[in-house]
Amino acid sequence: MRLITIVLAAYFFLLSFAPNMQGAQLLNLSSFIDHYEQHLETNPSSSLLTFVKEHYFSQINDLDKEHNSLPLKTSINNSVGVYTCEQNAIKFIPFEEIVFSTKEEKFTVYEEAYNFNKFHSVWHPPRIC
Fold this sequence. Notes:
Layout: H1 2-17, H2 29-42, H3 48-57, H4 65-68, H5 109-113
């Protein structure tokens, strides 16, 4: 599990340098190394930096197969199309409007909840029978 984590971390670290780079281009890394070794055989005094400048930043267009197999020399374009069609559309069925009627009846919770004795008032003291 730790090895998988390290490999994925390295993969995403390399992809962070070029966000538009396609990850499949890293599979061509072995051809890059092979071509660099061939380049060192013909020019032993050149460095990796001059090799990269010559093959990637110069306007020389080599039509060799080994130059096309280098990473980032070709691009892979993919497109995805999604087509949908509507089936079994739900039909709107209008229905009659229902009218509710209400009675105008005065109802108060306060009077119903309490039992008032109308014969006593606040001014009369309580009586013992």
